[in-house]
Amino acid sequence: MHRILFATSEVFPLIKTGGLADVSGSLPPALQALHYDVHIIIPGYQDVLTAIKQKKQIAEVAIPEHNATISLWETRLPGSHIKVWLVDFPPYFDRPGNPYHDTKGEAWPDNADRFALFARTVTAIALDQCDLSWKPDLVHCNDWQTGLVPALLSLVPQRPATVFSIHNLAYQGLFPRDTFDRLQLPEQWWSPEALEFYGQISFIKGGLCFADQLTTVSPGYANEIQTPEFGHGLEGLLRHRSTSLTGILNGIDDQVWNPGTDRYLPNPYNWKRLEDKQLNKTALQEHCGLTVDPSIPVIGLIGRLVHQKGIDMVLHVLPELMLEPVQFVILGSGELEFSKQLQYLAQSYPQKLFAFIGYDEALAHLIEGGADMFLMPSRFEPCGLNQLYSLRYGTLPIVRAVGGLADTITDAEDETIKSGIANGIVFRDAGPMSLLQAVKRALDLYRKPKIWKKVIITGMRQSYSWETSAKQYGALYDKLLRSEKSSNDVLLYHSG
Length: 496
Ligand code: ADP
Ligand code: GLC
Description:
- This protein has 496 residues and is of the alpha/beta class.
- It is 40% helix and 19% strand.
- The model is unreliable at 490-496 (pLDDT under 50).
- It binds adenosine-5'-diphosphate (ADP) and alpha-D-glucopyranose.
C-alpha cells in the first residue's frame, strides 16, 4: 500500500477559506478508498487546535533554521479514519482568524517564515527524521504555502516522490530578497531557473521547478496557464514543464454536497422530487427578508469577493438587473471596497437583493438548495466548485467560459438543448455587458419551464465523483513510484 503525505494549508471541516479546503477534505478519503495510506499535514492554527478535543502529541521536531522546536499533534479528519498531523508552533500559528491574513485583510507579515517552517517540518517527516514509524513514498503538495517542500526534498537523493498541485496560480508567495537570506535557503536557488522571480523569492516556483509531477484542477486551466493571459508570468516555465503537467478535475463530496441528504436544507430533494426545491426557495427568501414569491427567479452567488471572481462586473450590472423581476442572494467575504458597495446596494433594494458579508456554511447550502440560478462570472477559474454544487442542486449555473467552468458547463443553445447536453448558461467576454446578456438569457430560459426542467435535470444527473478524480491521481502516483523504484534500483546497483 503506497503511503502518501498530503500537505496543505487548509482542510474542510477543520479550517476553510475556499475550495482548497474542500479538495483537501475530500481527495484523501477518496484515495484511501482506493487503498492508499494517506496522512494529511496542516499548520496548527489556533482555531483548529482549540476546536479539536481528541488529539495527542506524537513528536517534537527541531527546526534549526527557525530556531524552533515544533510539536506535532495527531487527530483524525472528522468522518474518516485519516490521520491529520498539525504542526504546532505558537509564535507563528497561535493567532485568531484567517490562516493567511489579519482581520483587516492584511497578509500576516511573517507569512514567509510561517510557511517555510511548515515546509521544513513536512520535509523532515517526509525524510523519516521524526521517529514516526511512517515514511511516505510520495508527498503531495498544494499551492504556494507548500512550494518549498519539493525544492527542499530535491536536495536529497533518496527521497519520496513529489507531486505539486496548482489550485490558483495567482497566489505565488512572493517575498523580498532579504526573506530569502533569512530563510537560509541554498544560494544556488537565487536564480530564474529556481526560486527567483523578477528580484523576489517565489514559493510557488519551488513546486513548479522541483516537483516530479505537476497537476492543476482542470484540463482547461492546465492549458490556459501555459499562455500569457493566464500564466501570471510563469507561462514559460509551465510550457517547459508541460510534459509533467496534468489537469485533473475536482469532484463533489457526496457526504457534504448532496441535496437529498443536506442537513442544512429544510427540505431535502433530488431530481425526481424537484417540487421540494421550491420549499427551500421559500425558506431562502424568508431567511433573506426578500419578497416571498415562488415565481420570482432567485440568483445566488457565493465566493471570495475578489477581482478573480468578477465581483466588479456584478456590481456594475446589479442596478440594471434590479429593474428585472429577479432577486439576488450574495454571500462572500474579501475586499473591503466590494463588501461596502454590495451592502450599499442591498440597503437600496431590500426586497430584491440580500448580501451577507462573512463566512456562513449553512447559508451557502441554503443558497445552493433554494436559488434557481448561480452566478460565476470569473475572470479565471482553475476549477470552481460552486458550479458543480449548483449542477447537483438543480441551480442553473451562469458562468464565464474559462478554466474549470468551461470544462464543466455546456451552454443552453437550441442544438445542445436538443441533444440533451446543455446544463447552464455560458458567456465569453469578461465584460459587464456580456454578463448582463447571459443573465437575461437565463431569465428567458426560466420562462420556458419544460426546457428549463430538462436543462436542470441534465446537470443534476451528471456525476462529478471524487472517485473518478482520485483514480487519476492514483494513476499518476503509481507511475511516479514505478519510475522512482527503477531509478532507485539503478542507484543501489551502482552503489554496490
Ligand atoms: P475558490 O477556491 O477560488 O474560493 P471554489 O469555487 O473552488 O473557489 O470554492 C469555494 C468554496 O468556498 C465553496 O465550497 C464555497 O461554497 C465556499 N465559500 C466561499 N465563500 C464562502 C462564504 N462566504 N461562506 C461560505 N462558504 C463560502
Ligand atoms: C482555487 C481555485 C478554484 C478551485 C479551488 C480548489 O482556490 O480558485 O477554482 O476550485 O482552488 O481546487
